[in-house]
Amino acid sequence: MSDKPTLESRSFLEQATVGIVHATPEGHILRCNAEFAEIIGYPREEVRGLMIQEITPDEDGAQCLSSFQKLWTGASDALSLEIRLIRKDGTLTWAKLTVSLLRDREGWPSHLLAHVEAIHDRKSLEGIQAAVPQDAAPAKEDRFRRLFETSPDGVLIARAEDGKIVEANPALLEILQFSRDETIGNTSLGLDIWADESDSLRVAEALHERGGGRDLEVRLRRKNGEVFWGQLSASYADFDGESCVISYIRDVSAAKADEEKIRNLAFYDTLTGLPNRRLLWERLRQALISSIRSGSKHALLFVDLDGFKSLNDTLGHHIGDLLLQETARRIAGCVREVDTVARLGGDEFVIILEDLSQIAEIAAAQARTVGGKILAAIDQPFLLEGRECHTTSSMGITVFGNQNESTNEVLQQADIAMYQAKAAGRNAMFFFAPALQASVNARVALERDLRAAIRDNQFSLYYQPQLDRGLLTGAEALIRWNHPTRGIVTPQDFVPLAEETGLIFPMGSWVLETACLQIAAWAGRKEGAHLSVAVNVSAREFRQPKFVDHVLSALERTGANPENLKIELSESMFGENVEDVITRMTKLKAHGVRFSLEDFGTGYSSMTYLKRLPLDQIKIDRTFVNDILKDPISGAVAQAIISFGKAMGLSVIAEGVETEEQRAFLAKLGCHSFQGYLFSHPLPLGEFYEG
Fold it and tell me: Distance between CA atoms of 299 and 165, rounded to whole angstroms?
């Protein structure tokens, strides 16, 4: 990327109220504006080519270069320092430098940008206050008074004891627009100059902890109510024999506005207001670093408008610009605030989706969802100055993270995928990795089929017997999907997707209703009246505001005995909002509904709240049962669960019992309730043994 400024940026640099310098990390000045040349007293044409070392004393120059190197190597993001500059006539002047790093289109550091403010008068006042010996008091007072009266910075002196103002210079009165009579004897609070109370507290804290603060940016209020940005330095000083606080205040509103304009010119697209290529590279670099630290995946979406050149040539560049602006708004409306939408140039847009799932396939599905929204948004008609226009877009997506990827590689991957989308007929999206594309396609097909399954009632319940000392006590209801082409599909293949998409709600309602109908049906038979049915309920279902009403309504509609309904909850749902969970359980428990805690021992249960839960049963998880004969720890955990259950008056059931040796071992430990393949696989209703 060329370091030549654009016409717009050149115009702005000349109008800026602060000095602006572009330099290399070695201190070589590439260019500056007229304001900086005036600060150091050089004709502007002589400044370019100077080294920072040539216009600073040795100590200050060394400080600058050391700070520049920290910025260049990434040890610091930005820096602020006060140094002395050597003017052309040999005199010294104080300046404050605020320096940031600029990068080229590939994301590499290109040069330094410094905002330079002249602070000589304020430093002179501080120097007289601190450095002149007591035996020179008359001279000190005279010099201080001259500078005090003529300083362009506002100076305010207030008693430390009560905050009453004892002196204010003309510049301060002009800045705040108060008269001297209104100011002297009043306080800053009485004048109501603090636009943000936290700024007042911050200054007070700096005085209390460090004896003062320097160059604090604060928001102040003039007499007419206008709020402006001020730069404030404050410290303790003796004044007429009293301990006072002396504050130096400068109106930096114009400089703040200039800073923002400079930032926008450097990092934002002037047409759409979106981040430009340079800022995109920085955000992408940060995303790569973040993914390594957090383990989360990110996605980059490359969007190119279909047929934009033809539209631009036919309708004119003005209409084309309006289309790009509206496209930018539509894309931004499809993503979260944490995500980045950038204009790469022309009709190309790039989106960085932050903090997606750690699992690549799920992250790809999340990216696909957002990508679909963007394609649909752009596909809607555009009304531009009364003219209806239509366009579509092609999108390439790459999921990245946890690898040694570069910004160039990630962007190239998405670019390649975008051209695949173009080749496929446009108004489409493609993933860079073929395997990932296949995974996303399969996931989309599964979601489509799952919605059809809910609509067409393709589900059935299987029942796995639960026994106590050999007697049948009930069953766990397990959903099965009777897929028209794939046959029976087990829950692990579709329930996670149902959870993610919200389809778990209609599916869970069907399971509860069907289970309650079966409870009522078995109650009509003498040998089945005692049988309970356990229903798994996910955390998302349980946290529905109307969940309790939903369960009670199902019981009432079906006529099922609440005492024969057992709701199985997982430890994972107790990670937060424990009180809400307990409240809901207690309400259902009051109607006779029973509760079982599955996966016990695998989560992060706290005994403090476990003993408060209105449970009836706890399950020994199949992971412990599976290893119980070969792993002493699994046996110890099982023993602890059984002991805990007995102490709490809860029944204990072991799931996943597959061998007689496992059953015998558990029975020896004191567990006599079982569920598993040793007794029966889950069975369709017609094969379930009831006796």
Answer: 57
Q: Is the dihedral of CA 155, 156, 159, 162 positive or negative?
A: negative
Q: In the chain, what is the straight-line distance between the N-terminal and C-terminal CA atoms, in Å? A: 81
Asked if residue 255 lies in contact with residue 115, where contact means CB atoms within 8 angstroms, the answer is yes
- Characterize 70-97 residue by residue with b for buried, 16 or more Cβ atoms within 10 angstroms of its Cβ, and e for exposed: ebbeeeeeebeebbbbbeeeeeebbbbb
Which of 107-121, 131-145, 654-668 has the lowest average pLDDT?
131-145
Phi, psi dihedral angles at 683 (to 5 degrees):
-120, 145
- Residue 4: per-residue pLDDT: 46
User: Can you give the pTM of this predicted structure?
Assistant: 0.52
452: left (phi over 0), alpha (psi -120 to 50) or beta: alpha
Question: Cα angle at 273 between 271 and 277, to 5 degrees?
Answer: 85
Report how far residue 227's alpha carbon sits from residue 205's, in angstroms, rounded to the nearest whole number. Answer: 23
Q: Which stretches within 457-494 are classed as H helix? A: none
What string of H, E and C letters represents the secondary structure of 364-415?
A: HHHHHHHHHHHHHHHHCCEEECCEEECCEEEEEEEEECCCCCCHHHHHHHHH
Whether the CB-CB separation of 666 and 657 falls below 8 Å is answered with yes
For position 691, what pLDDT does the model report?
42
Which pair of tokens denotes residue 679? Answer: 């007794």
* 251 in Cβ contact with 177 (< 8 Å): no
Q: Which of 520, 462, 514, 467 is nearest to 491 (CA)?
A: 462
* C-alpha to C-alpha distance for 343 and 129, rounded to whole angstroms: 53
Q: Roughly what angle, to the nearest 10 degrees, separates helices 317-332 and 308-315?
A: 140
Which residue's structure tokens are 């000045």? Answer: 29
pLDDT bracket for residue 249 (50, 70, 90): very high
SS3 letters across 198-235? HHHHHHHHHHHHHCEEEEEEEEEECCCCCEEEEEEEEE
Tell me phi and psi for residue 262, to 5 degrees. -65, -45
Residue 516 DSSP SS3 = helix
- Give the count of beta carbons closer than 10 Å to the beta carbon of residue 203: 21
Distance in angstroms (rounded) separating the CA atoms of residues 407 and 283: 10
- The torsion of the CA quartet 598, 601, 607, 611, rounded to 10 degrees, works out to 30
* HSE toward the beta carbon, residue 383, CA cutoff 13 A: 1
Q: Which two tokens stand for residue 311?
A: 């539209």
Q: What totals of helices (H) and strands (E) does the chain contain, helices first?
A: 26, 27
Give the pLDDT of residue 13: 55
Q: What is the pLDDT of residues 377-397, one digit of tens each?
A: 999 999 998 889 999 999 999
Residue 616, helix vs strand vs coil: coil
- β-bridge mates for residue 162, sequence order: none
The length of the chain is: 691
Residue 74 confidence class, pLDDT cut points 50, 70, 90: low
Q: How far is the CA of 425 from the CAs of 302, 394, 418, in angstroms? A: 16, 9, 11
Residue whose C-alpha is closest to residue 619's, from 678, 562, 542, 671: 671
Contact between residue 664 and residue 646 where contact means Cβ atoms under 8 Å apart: no
Q: Is 129 left (phi over 0), alpha (psi -120 to 50) or beta?
A: alpha
* Coil, helix or strand at residue 338: coil
Highest mean pLDDT among 15-29, 131-145, 430-444, 635-649: 635-649
